[in-house]
C-alpha cells in the first residue's frame, strides 16, 4: 500500500505576492500673472501586497486540471498540508505527539493523543485521517476503514483517504471495489501515474476473469 495515501505530508504553503505598479502623478502648471511653475512629480512607491493562501478548493481545482505529474504532486502535498492544519495550536501539538509516538512504535500513546484531538475537534479531517493511518499500520483494517469513511463523509475529495481505502480493498482481494476506489481517486488526482498504472492493471485482471 502506498504510504502517501494516508500519511499527512507536512509542507510549507508558498505564498505568492502581487506587485502593484506605482503611478506617477504630476500637477499641471499653475495659471497666474507670471511664468508657469512645475512641481516635482510625486512617485508612488510600489507595494508588495501578499496574496491570500490558496484554499483547498483552489488547490483541488488546479490538481484536477494539472497534467504534469511533478506539478500535480506539489499541489497534492499542499492540499494534504492544508487538511492537516487545524488552526488550533493544541490540536496541532496533539497530532505531532501522536505522529512521534507512532514513529517510536508507542501505538497506545499515539492513539491516545489522536483520540484527544478528535474529541476536541470532531469535524477535523486531518485527525481522522491520521488515526486511519495509525489503525492501518497496526493492522486494524476494520477500524481504519471506519475512520476513512468518516474522512470521506467530511471531505469526499480527500484523495489520500480514497487511496487508503483502495489499498485496503486490494489487500482484501476486493478488486472490483478497489478499482472503483482508484477511479474515484483519479477523478480528483488524474496526473498520478502510479494510480493510472494500478487502474490499468486491475482493469486488465478483471477483464480476464470475466472472459
Q: What can you tell me about this protein's structure?
A:
- The protein has 211 residues and is mainly α.
- It is 60% helix and 6% strand.
- It has nine helices and four strands; from the N terminus they run ββββααααααααα.
- The chain has helices at 56-65, 69-83, 89-103, 107-120, 125-137, 141-154, 159-171, 175-188, 193-210; strands spanning 17-20, 24-25, 42-43, 47-50.
- A two-stranded antiparallel sheet has the order 1-4.
- α1 (56-65) runs antiparallel to α2 (69-83) and α5 runs antiparallel to α6 (141-154).
- The longest helix is centred in the last third of the chain and has 18 residues, at 193-210.
- The two termini are 28 Å apart.
- Mean pLDDT is 81; it is low at 1-37.
Distance between the termini: 28 Å
User: What does the largest sheet look like?
Assistant: 2 strands, antiparallel
Strand order of the largest sheet: 1-4
Average pLDDT rating: 81
Counting DSSP H or I runs of 4 or more residues, the number of helices is 9
What structural class do you assign from the helix and strand content?
A: mainly alpha
Residue windows where pLDDT falls under 50 for at least 5 positions: 1-37
Rounded to the nearest angstrom, the radius of gyration is 26 Å
The proportion of strand residues reads 5-15%
Shape: flat
Total beta strand runs: 4
Q: H/E series, N to C?
A: EEEEHHHHHHHHH
Helix content: 55-70%
Compact overview of the structure:
The protein is mainly alpha-helical and 211 residues long.
Please outline the helices and strands.
Layout: E1 17-20, E2 24-25, E3 42-43, E4 47-50, H1 56-65, H2 69-83, H3 89-103, H4 107-120, H5 125-137, H6 141-154, H7 159-171, H8 175-188, H9 193-210
Antiparallel strand pairs: 1-4, 2-3
Amino acid at each position: 500500500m502506498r504510504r502517501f495515501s494516508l500519511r499527512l505530508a507536512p509542507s510549507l504553503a508558498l505564498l505568492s505576492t502581487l506587485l502593484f505598479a506605482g503611478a506617477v502623478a504630476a500637477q499641471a502648471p499653475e495659471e497666474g500673472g507670471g511664468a508657469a511653475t512645475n512641481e516635482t512629480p510625486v512617485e508612488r512607491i510600489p507595494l508588495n501586497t501578499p496574496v491570500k493562501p490558496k484554499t483547498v478548493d483552489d488547490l483541488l481545482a488546479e490538481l484536477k486540471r494539472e497534467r504534469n505529474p511533478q506539478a500535480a504532486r506539489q499541489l497534492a502535498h499542499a492540499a494534504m498540508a492544508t487538511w492537516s492544519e487545524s488552526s488550533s495550536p493544541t490540536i496541532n501539538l496533539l497530532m505531532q505527539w501522536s505522529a512521534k509516538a507512532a514513529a517510536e512504535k508507542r501505538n497506545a500513546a499515539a492513539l491516545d493523543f489522536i483520540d484527544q484531538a478528535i474529541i476536541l475537534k470532531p469535524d477535523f479531517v486531518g485527525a481522522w485521517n491520521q488515526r486511519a493511518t495509525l489503525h492501518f499500520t497496526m493492522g486494524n483494517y476494520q477500524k481504519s476503514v471506519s475512520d476513512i469513511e468518516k474522512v470521506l463523509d467530511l471531505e469526499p475529495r480527500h484523495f489520500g483517504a480514497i487511496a487508503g481505502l483502495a489499498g485496503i480493498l486490494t489487500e482484501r482481494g476486493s478488486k472490483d471495489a478497489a478499482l472503483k476506489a482508484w477511479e474515484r481517486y483519479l477523478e480528483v488526482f488524474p496526473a498520478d501515474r502510479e494510480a493510472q498504472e494500478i487502474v490499468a492493471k486491475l482493469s486488465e485482471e478483471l477483464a480476464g476473469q470475466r472472459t
